[in-house]
Amino acid sequence: MRYFTAGESHGPQLTAIIEGLPANLELAPAMLDEQLARRQQGYGRGDRMKIEQDRVEILSGVRWGTTLGSPLTLVVKNRDWENWLEKMSPLVEHTGKAEAVTRPRPGHADLDGAMKYAQRDVRNILERSSARETAVRVAVGAVARQLLKACGITIGGYVTELGGVMASAPAVPYQQLWQQAAASELFCCDPAAEAEMKRLIDHTKAAGDTLGGVVEVQVLGLPPGLGSHVQWDRKLDARLAMALMSIQAIKGVEVGLGFEAARRPGSQVHDEITYDPAALERGAATAYVRPTNRAGGLEGGMSNGEPLVVRAAMKPIPTLYTPLRSVDLADHQPYEASVERSDTCAVPAALVVAEAVVAIELASALQEKFGGDSIEELRRNLDGYLATVRTF
Predict the structure, then answer these.
(1) Mean pLDDT throughout 301-324?
(2) Beta 325-327 vs 308-314: how paired, if at all?
(3) Which residues, other chains included, contact 156 with Cβ-Cβ below 8 Å and sequence gap of 6+?
(4) At residue 322, does pLDDT exceed 90?
(5) Whole-model pTM above 0.85?
(6) Which long-range contacts (CB under 8 A, 24 or more apart) does 350-353 make?
(7) Closest by alpha carbon to 220, among 305, 349, 307?
């Protein structure tokens, strides 16, 4: 499965084309809209969330609620487009009424992109580099989630840190943690930490500043053997890291213990292996069990049958209402950076995007391993493989 996205932050729409989906996968806009609505939630979001109420339109690749095996086209309209017709229209000649943006914002793609693409108006860069693009990526991720769900694989997650405030997840099954996170404005499983996070967001907003944080994504039901050790670009952990790092403002990725593994001796890092036939009765893919999951479900570039656990660190959004210093491209004089509409904190939204890109990468790895032009063929191939794995 591969996909491409197109569109600008204040253009008419965002578009995605997905190629390689199997036929006969149940798919309806409501399934995708649920994830788009989650992306727009979160304490500390900006005014644009009050404007946009994202919905997905499916324009091709689906008939009567199921996929056809042909390319799938998804569209998410920008409701704010009507206010940007003259400034952003691809069809109207430049009239001079749309003032050029010449003050690049520190921490954004503005200056680097302007030099790379020879643009004197930074808007030609910031429109596409905006995190608004993630709206349609979440839609693609929602499609991937449906494919994974059809194969018994589920995804969830929660916020583990925000602005230095650490959250502690209770020792309960992941599904229960996902339910707790869903009931939280910050997708947090620790009520005390959430209250402190909210106070910090309020204080930071009043100061015109922004906050970052850490999100954790977990995946249940993965069969062992997705990815491969034989080439660098087939290693599943490497592919997941690239997918997560492609999200705007993500600056670090961890799998399992992550950086903590560098601080411990090997005896406290590697997961011992036991053999428990009863695990098969509990729904496990294999009788080989790891009492701990410090590796986060990945060993040697492949899934090992344990829950996948990955984390991503998001930097504070660089658009500040107390602007940082910059330089005007027109006269090279120092100025305060320009301000686009922004959030004080978008860490909860980053969780939803992280879940989406993880789902996309896993769906692609699943199809690479098991093939199938229809969902029925894919599931047959998966079932046959699992039957073999259970005999080891």
Answers:
(1) 93
(2) unpaired
(3) 174, 175, 177, 178, 181, 217, 218, 355
(4) no
(5) yes
(6) 350/213, 350/215, 350/247, 350/249, 350/250, 350/312, 350/314, 351/157, 351/158, 351/159, 351/187, 351/215, 351/217, 352/35, 352/38, 352/39, 352/138, 353/39, 353/134, 353/137, 353/138, 353/141, 353/247
(7) 307
pLDDT value of position 83 = 86
Residues 310-321: tens digit of each pLDDT: 999 999 998 888
For residue 138, give Cα distances in angstroms to 116, 117, 132, 194, 292.
28, 27, 11, 24, 31
Highest CATH level, class, for 2-389 = alpha beta
Nearby residues of 231 by Cβ (< 8 Å), 6 or more positions away: none
> Using an 8 Å Cβ cutoff, are 200 and 149 in contact?
no
Q: How many residues does the chain have?
A: 392
Q: Are 104 and 122 in contact (CB under 8 A)?
A: yes
**Helices 347-370 and 236-245: crossing angle, nearest 10°?**
150
Q: What number of H helices and E strands is found in the chain?
A: 12, 17
Whether residue 146 contacts residue 56, with contact meaning beta carbons closer than 8 Å, is answered with no
Domain boundaries defined on the chain: 2-389
Per-residue pLDDT at 48 exceeds 60: no
Provide the 10 A C-beta neighbour count for residue 263: 9
